[in-house]
User: Fold this.
Amino acid sequence: MKGYAGKILRVNLSDGRMSKEEIPEEMMRKFLGGRGFAAKILWDEVSGVDPLSEGNKIVFSTGPLTGLPIPSSGKMVIASKSPLTGGYGDGNIGSMAAVHLRRAGYDVLIVEGKSERPCYIAIQDEKVEILDARDIWGKMSFEAQDSLEAKHGKNVGVLVIGPGGENIVRFATVMSQRGRAGGRPGMGAVMGSKNLKAIVVRGTGEIPVFDVERLREMGKEGYGEIKGKENYDFWIRQGTMQVFEWANENNCLPTSNFREGTFRFSKRLDGYALERLKVGRKGCPLCNMQCGNIIKDAENMNAELDYENVGMLGSNIGMDDLRKVGVLNRMADEYGLDTISLGSCLGFLMEASEKKLIEARIEWGDFDACQKAIEDIVKRRGLGEIIFEGVRKASERVGGDSQDWAMHVKGLEISAYDCHACPGMALSYGTSPIGAHHKDAWVISWEVSTDRFSYSKEKVEKIIELQRLRGGLFESMTTCRLPWIEVDFGLHWYPKYLEAARGVGISQEEISELGDRIYTLIRSYWVRESRSWSRKMDYPPSRWFEEPLNQGDLKGYKLDRARYDGMLSRYYEIRGWDEDGAPQKETLEGLGLGDVVSVLGENG
Assistant:
């Protein structure tokens, strides 16, 4: 099939073996690319292993649109068995490494085994090497990238971990281009466990497509349409930071470890505050609506901000100075830590301190204490020893009632939307395939603008619709979803792009089936790898059920557990999963996943 190199590059760090394998056409048809390929590979090859063991594998997977001259196509998916959650974990990242991998002639890179000493993988078209990384081991992610570019050239693609990944902090990410990050559920820790500091890629070939001239022409049209959209200029000014004011006004801005949905100092942190400090912007390859806002932080260094990290490292921990938030965010990027999980971990420590469940004192909004805590997390000392495995494990350590306000689902910390009064978004978090992440179904905007407080079947259907599009189609093509979401770039473009790339388009029915197949396979992976799977794994934290909001227009609101449970059952029914959330035999066979049946059992 056109649109693919059709090759998997496999590198074993234990013995140095490398192979180049054909991707079966059936896999291309059924799973498309990106997340679809990654989920299939992990299902087939990674079972019953410790995520930090030599037996785990990490998959770098592109899609049929990656690297093509169309809007926001510089993306890849990084996936593995997660050391943070114990289940399927992935994240996408915008990086020249994605483009170069395709140009080098590979759709997927699989790294397995473990090196005896720090190493990195260098890919130059057909030439693949495992090289010594002892001179950059221990370096911050930005400095390590600089060193690798000095050696291999400025125009290479680099994926790198910081000291957080090297020291196996469970929410360490993979970094690129001094601020691009991917793999919230600990993909950086998996690289660290393999003594793999970085991957450097340079590809000089052409990406094979079915109709290159048509693709280029449609790409130009698409870029032009995006720039002409009504919201484009405002997006360029604020990017995702435009959400901050909206979230505060609608009582869903995470505040004080998700106790509240409003922050009294929100004006100091919102998109207009950012505009006053902004000195530049940056983004992923092939993007004309860059979302990275650059400010000079409190140490007069460049810091890249967006809504999620300002919400979690700002209002969620009581930090009311955007330049100080910038410092914390830059530290996270340099160390290679996920900013969302980091903000949740700091909020957890602050509440544990307030409730005297830990001896150390770390007050809300204490900038100096936050800086020290970040360093402690990376070095796994002091407070860091409590929290380096995330809030779920930390709550088991500190005890008390902390499990009620350890803000996670399946072990992954919740991203920056409070759901005391948003049952649909709570269900979106509950059923996200990697744990509590907004990426797969950001239903909250639609929910707030419609029947916000309902627990309706329509709301469940909307969540599944968005999961099919955001988590199925976009994560597998693999392109960024933001042009569609933020400036209303038409969905109709993507089947046309796929047809020009592959010679085969995709219908709405096929999009739905693709999404359902991927979600059902990932759910099957969770069920297989979990020691005690139950529907409770799909519940948000008790805080949202038990502790009502105490501030704002929605004071007194909280989720209703019984009605949430009803929504969850409706979700399972539509998905074709049983009452514990495990896929049923008929569903698996109907989606072409018959081989999964024998593993999960006749009834899922």
Notes: The longest strand covers residues 75-81. The chain has three domains: 7-202, 238-416, 424-488+507-600.
